[in-house]
Every structure is written in structure tokens, then in C-alpha cells.
Amino acid sequence: MAGFVRELERRGGPALRLEQRAAGGVGCVVWDAALVLAKFLETGACPLARRDVLELGAGTGAVGIMAATLGANVTVTDLEELQELLMVNIENNRHLVTGSVRAKVLKWGEDVTEFQPPPDYILMADCIYYEESLEPLLKTLKDLTGPDTCVLCCYEQRTMGKNPEIERKYFELLQMDFELEKIPLDKHDEEYRSEDIHIVNIHRKQTNFPS
Q1: What pLDDT, on the 0 to 100 scale, is given for residue 3?
Q2: pTM of the full predicted structure?
Q3: Dihedral over alpha carbons 124, 126, 130, 133 (to 10 degrees)
Q4: Which value, in Å, is the radius of gyration of the alpha carbons in the chain?
Q5: 11-38 b/e with 16+ CB inside 10 Å = b?
Q6: By C-alpha distance, which of 203, 198, 150 is closest to 174?
């Protein structure tokens, strides 16, 4: 299967080299939202050194690997069929990692015991596009988050077809258990930003934890 490399510049040294796949599903290329979130992490707005980080729907692993170059201990997760691509990208960039990074299978909605205790950060880029996946994704988010977990969700606002409806439903369901705060555009990376790509900072509502 043909691969092609996407370079992602870093402020502090050589670029990440990310293999993509010309064939295969949506997880096989580096989406714009992943670039925006990866570059946002570099701004230093969220301290990542020695923090535990989990990426959901990692695809190529761009965001999680960037976090690992910033000192985080990262687990990038996606479906079984994306593990080989994740492994390739981890190996290609291992010399840039100052924390740690590993790839694991995590299917939304299924048991997350092996990913406990809750991480400090959960990263998600462009994970909202299938209506069928909303409920499993929300279950996984609830199962993985502790009272101090910060979820960074970056998504491209799409106006085609069912996308606006799916997005509206996702945030409606999310707000039942989580507090949401949009990160203003001027806090995004100066170059890697766009009016239609949003980053939302998500925390569990404190009332949902036994005192």
C-alpha cells in the first residue's frame, strides 16, 4: 500500500515525519485538525512534561507523537487496522521523543481497564464524524476521565450533509457530563490556525464524582 510522508515542523528542532497511506479509511492521513492541535500543544498552554497523555482516534499519531516530543508519556490509540501505521510513525520519530510513546488498540465503547488510572490529558482531533460512533465515544470519554483530566478536542466545523447535525448532537450529549470551554483563536499557533477549526477544553462536571 503506497505511503507518502507529511512533515510537521516543530519549533524546537527537526520536523516530525509522518507516513500516511493512500488507501484505507479516514485514519490514514494527517487531518488539518490534527495539525492545529499538535501545533497548539507546542505553544506551551498545557504543561505536558512528565504528564500521562492518551490520544483517542489517533490515526497517524501526529498529535500524540508531538506531545511525546514535549516530554509527555503518551499512549496513542486507534483500531487494530491502524496499529501498523502508528508503529511506523512512532519508530520514525522516536529520536525526537523526550517522554515516551506507545500504540494500543482501543475501540470506543469497550472496556478501558488497561488504560486506568485516568490520564492527565486526553487528546482528540477530528473524532466527530459518524453518528453511530457518538455514544461509544462519549462512553469511552466518561470511562477514561477523572476529576482532573483535561480533554482537548479539536475539530473542523463542516457544513456539508449531516455534519452540522452530528456536531450539534455530540456537544449536546457531552454537556450532560462535561464542562466545555472554547480556546480562543488567538491562543492557537500563529500559523496553524483557521476560523473553522476549533479547540475545546473539556472537563468532567465535578458533581459527577462521589465526594
Answers
A1: 64
A2: 0.93
A3: 0
A4: 16
A5: eeeeebebbbbeeeeebbbbbbbbbbbb
A6: 203
